[in-house]
Design goal:
Strand order of the largest sheet: 1-4
Radius of gyration: 19 Å
Number of helices: 4
Helix content: 25-40%
Distance between the termini: 41 Å
């Protein structure tokens, strides 16, 4: 019998933000987003729940939203959690006190992370 690994993203966050924020506000948003549980009414699809009942092991990130999603997916089943399954933190771009909507910060952070990674690769010692 072959083993299968099925990856499932957690449900929507209960943390909602509107308006413009600066770099410090972006970090506060990230902290609140990670600490929040699920949005009200979030439920996994029935087909996914049926599939999950066949799992030998259920593993989730240790963040509240991921744990809550896993508990709704397989009620009463022990869930292994690990911080290693968290999303990778993206660095905030050094934009000082600039203010922008969250979507702009998300795009700027992704671009900055991409640029930062290439900058680090370009600085490798020769022969690496």
């Amino acid at each position: 019998m072959s083993a299968r690994i099925i990856l499932v993203r957690h449900g929507r966050s209960g943390h909602v933000h509107t308006g413009w924020i600066d770099a410090a506000g972006l970090q506060r948003w990230r902290d609140a987003y990670d600490a929040a549980g699920l949005a009200p009414g979030e439920l996994p699809p029935p087909a996914l729940r049926r599939l999950a009942t066949q799992a030998g092991v259920v593993v989730a990130s240790d963040l509240p939203r991921a744990r809550a999603s896993a508990e709704l997916l397989v009620p009463g089943v022990e869930i292994a959690t690990s911080a290693l399954l968290r999303e990778v933190d993206q660095p905030s771009p050094p934009l000082g006190n600039a203010r922008a909507p969250l979507a702009v910060w998300a795009l700027a952070s992704a671009r900055y992370a991409h640029w930062s990674a290439w900058t680090l690769i370009d600085r490798r010692p020769s022969g690496s």
